[in-house]
Amino acid sequence: MSDLARxxxxxxTTISRALSDHHSIGPATKQKVQKLAKKLNYxxxxxxxxxxxxxxxxxxxxxxxxxxxxxxSVVHGIESAASKAGYSVIICQxxxxxVHERKNIETLLSAQVAGIxxxxxxxxxxxxxxxxxxxxxxxxxxxxxxxxGDNVNAVVLNDRDGGFQSTKHLLQQGCRRVAxxxxxxxxxxxxxxxxxxxxxxxxxxxxxxxxxIVYCDMTLEEGMAGMRRLLALPNPPxxxxxxxxxxxxxxxxxxxxxxxxxxxxxxxAGFSNEGxxxxxxxxxxxxxxxxxxxxxxxxxxFLELVEAKGSPFxxxxxxxxxxxxxxxxxxxxxKE
Length: 336
What we know:
The protein is of the alpha/beta class.
């Protein structure tokens, strides 16, 4: 802007007003400024403007990781909805580390973002770093992995129902020893998926057998180790419901190595509907998480918070309903 002002012999205030089409600047001056700005390839610094004004049209998004299908699809939903509302998006990864998550918060606050959307890291058990966001009056929306309580704005999947649907489907196929790969129970998603599994067992009058529950980090390697442990039981399972697809893929690989047939000997069902579930042999049954819709709903909730600023707004959760995609891996009734 100083280059434009010096070359045209006017003040930077005049340049600024001309570029923003201010009514106090005449058409001839505006035309000169805009013509020279185009010639010099001038680009406005929106971040600097936000720092001056103390506000921006930027949305900060923190995800645990950006691999696989789920989080990239949620971010796509956020970006598409945010763009329609006139916002741009800054994406940060916590890499499943609460220390990185805290740094992400500081970075986004420094950038004067208009709102923050976050899915918690695996190691987050203390939530004090979010107090800074609230104290500044910046809308805070959680999605998928969220704090629990009545004072949280969040968009979540009905994970309990997803776990229930998946386990019930395996039981409907005639399976009676259904094991469960469970994630870390301080995370709402894994706690609720496990509860859905237990609900289905109760519906069918089956006991809660803790030796059939494997707590793991939902990785392929831990899925293989978990399946190895289950097969070593005196009475191995005839089915596995996994709270994540990667660990289920590990189970499938181990079963193939052992020559155990899927689904005839052991039926499998997972959660997340990752892209690879439709190309494995057999294809894997999985719960779809409505990823893009979750991202779009998070932006709508943010916009509601913006509109309600200065007036009473009760915290609320938006709950999306899961959908079970049934594929060959769980069709246990197709026994030979």
